[in-house]
């Protein structure tokens, strides 16, 4: 099963955006993420619809964070991304006729549900501001200058 890295990628983009006072274009964000601007726009559209980010067209336009980062949780972002699967594992067959597989599905199904509930509860406790503070701490320890175009090179 292919892993869905959109949440990680969006958090990366949002942390870059939190560092900037001016709007960032899809092109600038794409360069920072080593991806295509269309991928950035497509991904950010759900966040815009959820009113987590704002976009402005034209000269001087780009993407900005629309709310206080202390009020944006990982869960908010997860919902804006369309609730991607959080677990890569699943049952082999969702409606098995075999009694053995039914027993396996029952045990695994309840464990998967508990694990997902725990993870989503944790997502509700972590804010974008907390991630930004963690970045600030790590960045201060490194003692470098922040530049969107070069931060990944170090």
TrEMBL record:
Domain of life: Bacteria
Signal peptide: none
Alphabetical list of InterPro entries matching this protein: Tscrpt_reg_Rrf2, WH-like_DNA-bd_sf, WH_DNA-bd_sf
GO molecular function list: DNA-binding transcription factor activity
SUPFAM superfamilies xrefs: Winged helix' DNA-binding domain
GO cellular component, as recorded: cytosol
PANTHER family: HTH-TYPE TRANSCRIPTIONAL REGULATOR YWGB-RELATED, WINGED HELIX-TURN-HELIX TRANSCRIPTIONAL REGULATOR, RRF2 FAMILY
Protein name per Swiss-Prot or TrEMBL: Rrf2 family transcriptional regulator
Organism: Undibacter mobilis
Taxon lineage: Bacteria, Pseudomonadati, Pseudomonadota, Alphaproteobacteria, Hyphomicrobiales
């Amino acid at each position: 099963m292919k892993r869905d890295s959109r949440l990680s990628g969006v958090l990366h983009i949002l942390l870059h955006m939190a560092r900037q006072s001016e709007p960032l274009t899809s092109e600038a964000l794409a360069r920072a993420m080593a991806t295509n601007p269309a991928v950035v726009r497509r991904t950010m559209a759900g966040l815009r619809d959820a009113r987590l980010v704002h976009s402005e067209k034209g000269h001087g336009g780009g993407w900005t964070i629309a709310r206080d980062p202390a009020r944006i949780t990982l869960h908010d972002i997860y919902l804006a991304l369309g609730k991607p699967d959080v677990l890569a594992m699943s049952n082999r067959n969702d409606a098995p006729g075999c009694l053995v597989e039914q027993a396996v599905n029952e045990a695994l199904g309840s464990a998967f549900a508990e694990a997902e509930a725990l993870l989503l509860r944790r997502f509700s406790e972590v804010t974008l501001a907390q991630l930004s503070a963690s970045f600030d701490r790590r960045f201060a320890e490194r003692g470098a200058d922040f530049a969107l175009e070069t931060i990944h090179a170090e």
